Amino acid sequence: MGDDAISHYTYHIQATLIENKIVIQNYRNQAGRFILATNLLDEEIDLTANPHTALEQQKWTPELILKEYKSQQSTERGFRFIKDPLIALLLLSLLSAIALSQWSKEQSSL
């Protein structure tokens, strides 16, 4: 071929996005469904330790139960690494080595 050969192609896409509210609502209706069960509905809780509220006591409401549940998720994520089998095995091995070392020291001092 000569010098006029095509070396590459370039494509350009033009599109118009249209929000489909029905599809979006259907996905929202399917997302995030779970059940929280509690036996604390009739008990009062003391919120005086919470600086973000002016209430002294309040009843458990579904919204408050959900908020409390979600506030625990960050703690759970913080400890997720411990549930990893490899990390658990490494921790177990390390603790076993420490215990064996301590036991050996105690046996040699006898």
What do you see in this structure?
It contains 5 helices and 2 strands, in the order H-E-E-H-H-H-H. It has 110 residues and is mainly alpha-helical. The chain has a two-stranded antiparallel ribbon with strand order 1-2. The N and C termini lie far apart (91 Å). The mean pLDDT is 79.
Unreliable spans: none
Given the structure, what is the number of helices? 5
Please state roughly what percent of the residues sit in beta strands, choosing from under 5%, 5-15%, 15-25%, 25-35%, 35-45% or over 45%. Answer: 5-15%
How many strands, which pairing sense, and closed or not: the largest β-sheet?
Answer: 2 strands, antiparallel
Helix content: 40-55%
Give the rounded overall mean pLDDT.
79
Number of strands: 2
Outline, from the CA principal axes?
Answer: flat
Identify the strand order in the major beta sheet: 1-2
In short:
This protein has 110 residues and is mainly alpha-helical. Helix content is 49%, strand content 5%.
State the main characteristics:
110 residues, mainly alpha, two-stranded antiparallel ribbon
Task: Tell me the layout of helices and strands.
Blueprint: H1 21-30, E1 44-46, E2 57-59, H2 62-71, H3 73-78, H4 80-83, H5 85-108
Antiparallel strand pairs: 1-2
